[in-house]
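Notebook entry, structure prediction.
Reason for the run: the old model in the group folder had no record of what sequence produced it. Starting over properly, with the input documented here first.
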Amino acid sequence: MALSRALRLLCRHLRPSSALLSSLPGWDRSLPTEKKTAAKWKEKKKSREGFSLPGCSWEERLVNMVTPLWRLPYQEQLQVKYESQRKILQTLASRLEELGIDVQKPGGLCCPLRPVVPSPVINGYRNKSTFSVNRGPDGNPKTVGLYVGTGRARNIVCVKANHLENIPPKHKQVAQCYEEFIHRSPLDPCILFHEGGHWRELVVRTTSCGQTMAIITFHPQELGQEALATQKALLKEFFTCGPGRVCDLTSLYFQESTMTRCSHEQSPFQLLHGQPHIFEEVLGLKFRISPDAFFQVNTGGAEVLYQAVRELSQAGGDTVLLDICCGTGTIGLSLAHKVSKIIGIEVVEKATEDARWNAAFNGISNCEFHSGKAEAVLPQLLSSWEDARPLLAVVNPSRAGLHYRVVRAIRNCKSIRRLLYISCKPEGEAMRNFLELCCPSDPGKKLAGEPFAPTLAIPFDMFPHTVHCELVLLFTR
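New structure, fully documented this time:
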């Protein structure tokens, strides 16, 4: 019963967008597309808001929303996720058929699908957690936790995350201490920017080496520099000399922000206490992590993933590796001993600095890292590419997928014959990328290169208890 219910829940997450193909070469607008009815949209929205089980406590609503598979034994969770990835590959196969490309394999898949690779850690695996500040179930506006509900529906409730199995105890401890601090503070929380208030979200990052970084976001509103300095001093005192010292923070950061999200370049992260970085070890290499640098959220799972990428790359000693959306350089540097050169591209400048430091610290010299948007850096890099060595591309974008100019640059570079696409949401915008990589050539859209074909798919469970997993798709041509 629980498994079938989980499968029904998962299907709601996998409905493909009917707009995916509208701008692709070879797309026939007369072909039928799946239309979302108002009833389906309401059902999806309702499930997302976490109110599917009437009579549940707020804690149960949160756990059902964040970790909907938590009731299932782990092997059944993997079965559910395998089914979801199978449906995604079937969707891709049918979409490619609509473009006139016959890639159907047994089971209606576009390529062979291996079983889901399990996570080596099932509980408390997250090395990064983001906690919000808002009204709790008891009306307390200084509750630190995760949201149930949506801002659009005006039904947000902030619920403490103490009972979530995917968040480690250290993260929960820091969140509890932050809540105690803002309870003591005379300043209000910033729930809606235009209504005033100051205390905002908390990000906690930890490593397997036992280090902890806390990043607190604060809306300055009309406070002057002296008042800001006072708040920073109080925050530092609380976490170094007061009740918060039990957290034993390696790094305590403070960011003044008037936006929902902003980078270090937009508003610098201010180090109030401790070391500027924390450090993680993956596959025998040491990696430096800045406050806003991307790092896979499941460190043990990342090691398993990167080992598989090594094998799938089939890189020889003369191969040049393009590591696109490289973060702190983990994938490229883990392959450095197998290739002749690594070229990394990353939009977050501090992460690029981390990647360069990581390379130097680990004694890796056959690499270069470029800071900037991939859609600006990659086309320029490949337009003048004359190197005769084989070129391997590995892409690991956010949920938003790759920019069209990145896909076009890859398609049009004849030296790239093998591409590994790592996606945390293959049913989303990544699906558009898959189709752009495989669709027929179209000079009108500047897609002159030979199409790729999906060759192998391997899902990795980086997020136990949730419906999500990381899919590695190998494309060749």
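Summary: The chain has twelve helices and 16 strands.
The old model has been moved to the deprecated folder.
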